[in-house]
Design goal:
This protein is globular. Helix 3 packs across helix 4, helix 3 runs parallel beside helix 5 and helix 5 runs parallel beside helix 6. The protein contains 8 helices and 10 strands. It is an alpha/beta fold. The site of adenosine-5'-diphosphate has 12 residues, from strand 1, strand 2 and helix 1.
């Protein structure tokens, strides 16, 4: 579903060329829930932004389904972002002037989809994520967990190839955090969604099928879950004890 081949990316600051991603290759299967973890500055956001087509990369290729996204122009990239990708951000990025329901519908409106079908779809997503009772509320009137479940519903409405999430639980307390993890698990189980998520939270990652660990711009290890969530969390914690802190700079 998502294929990254030999991806490299560097940032130029003045005369210095700073390599952030070095020859990264991996695949994410349809219906897989994958987390990317790694110390602060290891290149997680850069990787996600490259896949999101938000920043250009130096070398390598990224395939979404069968489509190679290298070399597309801005208009084509915008189309890929709207039709093939769903986004969930740390700070929700909901539009405050729109209701929960309207926020969820937004990607369909941009894609000029039929209103009747859109409403049926949006209602179904509200039901799945337990937000039907707040669908006419505005973002300022709901909790962080509800905001993020709204964002997950919005990310899914165009039935994207992949949902990309950067620290989706970074601004949430542990209870809301669990509600958002459950929303991703439901998206995967009930809708076959493919999810690629950056997180520094071992608890959140322990619900994933696989964890890709980045360190200094390279894939350090990949851990596939073949045990219970609690056991997987112990494995992750042990792995990161050896790697050092996973905390973000802004925490
Ligand atoms: N736009 C930029 N210009 C220059 N350096 C950058 C830019 N964005 C990120 N970096 C650097 O690249 C490295 C990786 O950043 P990032 O991908 O944000 O890491 P992470 O999300 O894992 O914390 C960091 O050292 C960061 O300072
Ligand atoms: Mg980051």
């Amino acid at each position: 579903m998502l294929k990254v081949n030999n991806l490299s990316k560097s940032y130029k600051t003045g005369k210095l060329n700073y390599e952030v991603l070095m020859d990264i290759s991996f695949e994410v299967d349809k219906g897989e829930f994958v987390a990317v973890m790694g110390p602060s500055g290891s290149g997680k956001t850069t990787l996600l932004n490259s896949i999101s087509c938000f920043i250009p990369f130096d070398n390598g290729e990224i395939l979404l389904g069968d489509q190679e996204i290298t070399g597309l122009n801005e208009e084509q990239l915008a189309d890929v972002r709207n039709r093939k990708l769903g986004f969930v951000f740390q700070d929700f990025m909901l539009l405050d002037g729109l209701t929960v329901f309207e926020n969820i519908c937004m990607p369909q409106i941009i894609a000029e989809k039929e209103v009747k079908k859109m409403e049926v779809l949006a209602n179904k997503l509200c039901e799945i994520f337990g937000i039907s009772h707040i669908k006419n509320k505005y973002p300022t009137e709901i909790s962080g967990g509800e905001k993020q479940r709204t964002a997950v519903a919005r990310a899914l409405i165009n039935q994207p190839h992949v949902i990309l999430a950067d620290e989706p639980t970074g601004n949430l307390d542990s209870k809301s955090c669990r509600a958002v993890v459950d929303a991703f698990l439901q998206a995967k189980d009930e809708m076959g969604a493919t999810i690629f998520m950056v997180t520094h939270d071992s608890y959140v990652a322990s619900f994933c099928d696989r964890v890709i660990v980045l360190k200094d711009g390279k894939i350090h290890t990949q851990l596939r879950r073949s045990c219970k969530q609690t056991e997987f969390m112990d494995i992750l914690l042990e792995t990161f004890k050896q790697l050092g802190s996973l905390k973000n700079d802004n925490e």
